[in-house]
Each structure stands twice: as C-alpha cells, then as structure tokens.
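Q: My labmate handed me this sequence with no annotations at all. I'd like to see what the chain might look like in three dimensions before we decide whether it's worth expressing. Could you predict it?
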Amino acid sequence: MKRVAIAVCVLAGVAHADEKLVPTAVAVSSTVDNANIKPDQLIDGKMTTAWNSVTGGQHEWVAVRVPVKAHVTAIKLTAGFTAIDKKLGDLFTENIRIKKVVVTRYGATLGEFPLDTNNRELQTLKVDGDGGDFKIYITETIPGSKKNWKEVSISELEVWGTPAPVDPAAPAVKPAPIIVKVGDLDADAMLTKAECKRALGPADNPIIDEKQIYVTDALTLCQRATQAKGDSHSLIAIGLADRRTKKLFTKLDDIDVNNGPSWAMQGEDTQDTDSGDVAIEMRPLTTTERVVVVTTTSGVSGPMTGDTNTRTQWYRASTKGLSKILEWTSSDMNGEESTRDICDPVPFTPGASIPKQIVFTCTHTTTDWHNENVSKQGSFDKARKERYKWNGSEYVKL
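A: Here is what I predict for the chain of 398 residues:
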C-alpha cells in the first residue's frame, strides 16, 4: 500500500475541569491507501473514525510535538478502531488492537504502557514532564477476527496538561490548528515514488516495499525492498537523496534479509527457520540535528535453538552523504547453553552540541539449560558500562 503525505488542521477532544488539552503537532508513521480513511481522523474528536496505518505495516508510531514551555501530564489514546459499523460489523474486534506501547521524549524512554484490549475508551498514559517531541511506539498488538485486515488503528489521541503561558501583552492570535503529517513531524514535502526509484537506480528483482523518511528540508531517505519470486531472501536498499535535484548523495550496501528455511537436520523431520528485519528511524543528536538509525535484526529458530543478532548503526546525513558515526551489536543465543549480551544507550537530553560521550548499559547473561555446570558457574547476570567518545568524526569505544 502506498504512503500518502497529508496535512489536516483540527483540534481534538473535550477538556475536563482539572486539566486542559495541550496544542500539539501530530505525525503518524504511515497511512492506509484508502481515500476515505485519513490521518486527521486520529484527532477529529470522533470515536467513530480512526487513523489506520499502512496495510501490513511494522514499527508503527505516532509522534506529537508539544510547546517546550507547556507541561504534559498524560497522553490518552484508544487501543483500536472503536466503532461499530452497520455494514461491516464491530470494527474494534475485527481489526488489530494495541496491547502495548512505549513512549519516548527526544529519544529517551519515559515508560512502557500496557493497554486493555477489551476497553474501547481512551486509556491514559501517565507521562508527567515538560513539553517537547514525544513518540508513541506500538510494540505489541493482537490480531482481529478479520485476518486480512492488517492495519494498526487508533480512533482518538489526546495530549493533556498545562499549556504554555500566554503573554498578556501580546496581541490576540487565533490558535494555530493541529497539522497531521505522515512520516515525520517536520515532513512537508517528499519525493514521489518514481523519484525515489530513479535515485536508487534499477532493481534486479520485483519491488515488494517502498518507504521514505524525512531527514531535513532538503534531504529524504529512500528505502525499498526487492525479492525474486519464490525466494525467501529480500534485499533492502537505502539511499540519501536531494529533494531539490532528485539525485542520490549516498547509497548504502544492500542488506540481505532472509525469512525462510535455513537448514534441516539430516534424518529428522525438523528444520530451522531464518528471520530478519530492517528498521529505520530518526533520533535526536542535538537540538538541531538528528541521526539516521538503522537497526538490522537476524535470527534463526528451531527445535534446539533460537538465536537473534541485532546490529544498530547511527549515520549523520548531509549534502556530503551518509556518514556512520556509531555502531554496536547485541545478541541473544539460545541453546543448551544460552548467552545474552544486550547493550542499550543511556537516554540523554539533546543539547546544542554533539554529546562528547555516549554511555551504554550492557548485560551479559549465561544460562545452562541442564544445570550441568551449576557448581562451576550456573546462571548469572553481569552488568557493565561501555563508553564511546566523540573524536570529531565518529564515536570510538573507550
């Protein structure tokens, strides 16, 4: 399904006596290819309409920008499409429902919030703090009764708290309407699908997915996946393009993703299955610059194993192209003896300049399924800190 850039102006919700709706800018990760279902329906004040993501979409999110001098006490949203349609039936139970979300502010995690998938009303996420850029990541869902309905839906979203103070001496100005955008809070214009195709160059195999990510007013990240018929391997192409000239600055090496059988044990009725994924998002590095984050996950699952490797790379984007500044890996190796080595950057509040150091919290876990080595080592967790220092062009591990 194609993504469509739409900007709609509306202010949602009804205020209660003890709190107020806070004006926000809103963006959604994608939108379904249906002229009757628009992103603005996320905040139109009607529980009978809903935002729907692209069909089969993954890593879906909603972003809100709140004035920095405002104070946010809660974000409220529904767990799905709450309406009952006379012809189509109960859209809440028929569609995908949201079971869990993660909320961040400027890339720092504020919390993980479970949603009641049987509750059609607005559900409250307590996120007491100052204004800024928030993102609600949809991390867990449950399928609806209509197996072919593969869009994530939210009927309503509201941000509550204390609005930014108004200067009484300032002339009265009509409040700016909320603008719902697709792909990024700052996305006003994107390349067309044809322009991204030309920028990335000819594809050897059929294209199965295409995406764009807003980087700056001049730069767009083009992404596509190609796959030969009957092949479980797909190739992910990523390139940074100039929206003014429609030409490519940088194209990364294609990423090979396999989602199919890997090997079968001789004489056995079992086989292992490979799985992979590539996720791209923008993350604040300073108050004026964001980095392109490319996360590649590859794994294999079978009767005796369940291994996952994750590689995360940060790129700075400019008219000189994409420049990698940081890379780290995490692993989860499950077998008779299991080891996990998971690293996550410590959240930081972006400042005017590039952080001099990025700190990681890492945990190494070893588990022996059969407890054969308990007397020697057994199961244990070992935490450590890793630090990467900025050397003027990239982060290097200390």
